[in-house]
Design brief:
two-stranded antiparallel ribbon; Multidrug efflux transporter AcrB TolC docking domain, DN and DC subdomains; alpha+beta; Alpha-Beta Plaits; 14 helices; 4-stranded antiparallel beta sheet; Multidrug efflux transporter AcrB transmembrane fold; 53% helix
């Protein structure tokens, strides 16, 4: 059993295709293309699936081993020893000192075949080619990746925990487009099989539409119940004034506009005007009695201020504890609760200051 975080899941799944020979393309992807993608901002890890990886296979002949009296570990150790870079001391001259090393790189199949395994007698040398057959082949596959039946190389891209998935996806798409342009002659292509940011953007656009629709519906309802366009416009001031504070809080905490923060904004549209409606209606009641505008604003606000405070605190005490949640979905819930709490408290402040500061001119403007 393992504890899984949403940040551990791949953001994008790709399939890389090319007209290069499969082993050559796999090596080119690992050595040249992947480093270009991995250095992009927000990219944490890229996992490869499928592809044919080059492998030099030493197929040892058991009968030859017995004939030359050589063991299998001797062959393996000889090849490993020949591939090492070994320090060989220092060379001192009048001008300075040089460090010497023995470069034991094996570059071709012939280099592997010529590796000395043993010297059973003076002048007698047993090489790898004497006891084995060396093949420049392909490693046994451990995974398969296909696109429309064509063999390719799959890439699973994960983002860093604090990175913006949408920005990372856009950067990866731009870099892949540059690679495709540079290697157009070899028909190198990156096919996006899935991208979670597409769903995120669709959801964000839907929430933005719902947010605008909610504002329109709230304005219509207020116009019908308050029976005054001026009063409705005054109350609607509470919405942008309160939402601005939410953006300020999001900037201070490092939150971004995502599905959860926009969802919080769309849910609290109705809550943001509650206090202003109650206070404005009470102020209007005193204006209808003929009281002076300034005195009506002060009296109406003071009389219903405690009720407005109670209404606001009910919402705050429900969402505030979510900020201190420590479960693995806390990264999603905290921005949601911060937006709700800050906007709700700001709506109370607006209803005590901005709304009473702009009371209706007189009762005669009511329709």
């Amino acid at each position: 059993m393992s504890k899984v975080s949403p940040n551990d899941l791949p953001i994008m799944s790709l399939s890389a295709l090319s007209d290069r020979p499969a082993p050559e393309f796999h090596q080119h992807l690992v050595d040249d293309l992947l480093p270009r993608i991995q250095q992009l901002k927000g990219v944490a890890e890229i996992t490869l699936l499928g592809g044919e990886q080059r492998e030099v296979q030493v197929q040892v002949d058991q009968e030859r081993l017995l004939q030359h009296r050589v063991s299998l570990p001797q062959v393996s150790e000889a090849i490993l020893r020949a591939g090492r870079e070994v320090p060989a001391g220092n060379v001192r001259t009048d001008e300075g000192q040089l460090t010497v090393k023995l470069a034991g790189k094996l570059h071709t199949v012939q280099d592997v075949e010529e590796v000395v395994v043993a010297m059973p007698a003076p002048g007698s040398v047993v090489r790898v080619k004497d006891v084995a057959h060396v093949v420049d082949g392909v490693a046994d596959p451990t995974s398969v990746s296909r696109y429309n039946g064509r063999e390719g190389i799959g890439l699973l891209i994960k983002k860093q925990g604090d990175a913006n998935a949408v920005d990372m996806s856009a950067a990866v798409r731009a870099e892949m487009a540059r690679i495709e342009t540079e290697e157009a002659a070899l028909h190198t292509r990156f096919i996006i099989a899935s991208d979670s940011t597409d769903t995120t953007l669709e959801a964000v656009n839907a929430v933005l539409f719902d947010l605008g629709l909610a504002i329109v519906l709230v304005s219509i309802v207020m116009l019908l119940f308050l029976r005054s366009l001026r009063n409705s416009l005054i109350v609607l001031v509470a919405i942008p004034a309160s939402l601005v504070s939410a953006f300020v809080a999001m900037g201070l905490f490092g939150y971004t506009l995502n599905l959860m923060t926009l969802l919080a904004m769309s849910l609290i549209i109705g809550i943001l005007v509650d206090d202003s409606i109650a206070i404005l209606e009470n102020i209007q009641r005193y204006l209808d009695k003929g009281m002076d505008k300034r005195q009506a604003a002060l009296t109406g606000r003071a009389e219903i201020g405690f009720s407005a405070l109670s209404i606001t605190l009910v919402d705050v005490v429900v969402f505030l504890p979510i900020i201190f949640v420590q479960v693995f979905v806390a990264d999603l819930l905290k921005p949601f609760s911060v937006v709700v709490v800050v906007s709700t408290l700001m709506s109370l402040f607006v209803s005590f200051t901005l709304t009473p500061g702009s009371p209706p001119a007189s009762a005669s403007v009511r329709t």
